[in-house]
Description:
Blueprint: H1 2-16, E1 21-25, H2 31-47, E2 55-61, H3 64-67, H4 70-76, E3 81-86, H5 88-98, H6 118-133, E4 137-143, H7 151-171, E5 175-178, H8 184-195, H9 213-217, H10 226-243, E6 250-252, E7 255-257, H11 259-275, H12 287-305, H13 307-312, H14 315-327, H15 336-339
Parallel strand pairs: 1-2, 2-3, 3-4, 4-5
Antiparallel strand pairs: 6-7
Keywords: Acyltransferase, Glyoxylate bypass, Transferase, Tricarboxylic acid cycle
EC number: 2.3.3.9
InterPro entries: Malate_synth_C_sf, Malate_synth_sf, Malate_synthA, Malate_synthase_TIM, MS_C, MS_N_TIM-barrel_dom
Amino acid sequence: MDFALYFFHNYQSRADRGLGVYYYIPKLESMEEAKWWDDVFSFTENYFSVPTGTIRATVLIETLPAVFQMDEILYAMKDHIVAMNCGRWDYIFSYIKTLKNHKDRILPDRHGVGMDKAFLNAYSQLLVKTCHARGALAMGGMSAFIPAKDPQEMARVTAKVIEDKQRESQNGHDGTWVAHPALVDLAMSTFDKHLGGKTNQLDFVSPDTEITAETLLKPCDGTRDEAGVRKNIRIALYYIEAWIQGHGCVPIYGLMEDAATAEISRANIWQWIHHGVTLDDGQVFTAELFHTWLYEELSTIQQEVGDTRYFAGRFDETADLFYELSTSKQFASFLTLPSYPLL
């Protein structure tokens, strides 16, 4: 519906300016889904008698199954695709969701899972290698940092964004994302410095090292501690409470968070409870321990936002939903589905 309405109302005015109609396609898991979208695009172009390729798409590779079908997705959408993009936060969620029942595939606390980890760096490199072999652009992922008023904190944000964008440009990506307009120039200047005046690096050839399924599927090391769990709880509560009030993107603790953040947090917690993970201090992470920390963190949130905001919000029902999602026997595919009745 969104696709059709946007095309119908904009294709002519865009054609008058020499432009096509451009889309991002998220959440694909297979080449069959990509082929379905390509069929929709082709039908639309034929129906409105516009040239093939008027519709152009960038496909987000943000699910674990899709990373194993990137060649096939490119082929299925060859008449319309221009780029593939690393959707890294959703990818981490998809990794947990896909491998949730495998005790040997448990990730550590999400705050320690960055693009410098081997399985995520391999995902980035494989996307570049696949795209450039077929003449498609390879987009990097989003840096979730937002500007800070405190000079020291802003210096830390700047360093983190530069580090992230240097890694992506050196891996061969042609462009990237940031979460806040004020950081666009910083990301652009980092890429421009590496590209040396070029608009892309389609000629970049990845190092001749094979990226194996073993690397893509191997989890990373990291902390599993109480402080990390408690922070995950607070972030998920803040985000879900905002979502059920109609807000899709929310600044939380210096990062622009979206649904993927809450998804990673509750998937992380679900998997730890499901497999009885032992924390770094020796405690076994159980549903009972999670329940205690969850409702203690509600009090922390009340202190952070104040009584007026807390009682005007919907934090209590959010906590009940979060507990149910994180401890249910069956893993819910997306937290938004059981959240819709609360909207």
